[in-house]
Design a protein that fits this description.
- The protein is mainly alpha-helical.
- It has two domains: 1-41; 45-117, no CATH class.
- It contains three helices and two strands; from the N terminus they run αββαα.
- The protein has helices spanning 6-41, 99-102, 106-115; strands at 79-81, 86-88.
- Strands 1-2 form a two-stranded antiparallel sheet.
- A hairpin with a 4-residue loop joins β1 and β2 (86-88).
- It is elongated and about 70 Å long.
- Residues 3-30 form a coiled coil.
- Residues 35-117 form the VWA N-terminal domain.
- Pfam families: VWA_N.
- This is Calcium channel, voltage-dependent, alpha 2/delta subunit 1.
Amino acid sequence: VEQNDADKLVARAARNIEQLLRKRSAALEKLATAAEVFQMEHVWKDEFEDAEIAYYNSKDNLDANETEGRKYRIRPDFKEDPSFKRLTDHNHTAVHIPTDIYDGSAIVLNELNWTEA
């Protein structure tokens, strides 16, 4: 049995946590700066072609071929994920947009356009 020095253990843990948080903070600042640049460079468009912006509409019935012929809709490839214990798609991310109100609106499509970067 080996004695532990509690003060040293706590100090080391605190240093490790501080270093981890410093790295995460720097990464977050870098992402925020890049997002601001992409947003400033984005040119607003009043109209989009159907196939110009692709997005996933969660109201689409994925069991039916409802997305056939709709090239602007992303059809996720959901697979069972043992970590999350549910169907997931690791190739796409999503944001909640009330599509019953905003489906295809210029505001939403412009936001999707610049955030796609």
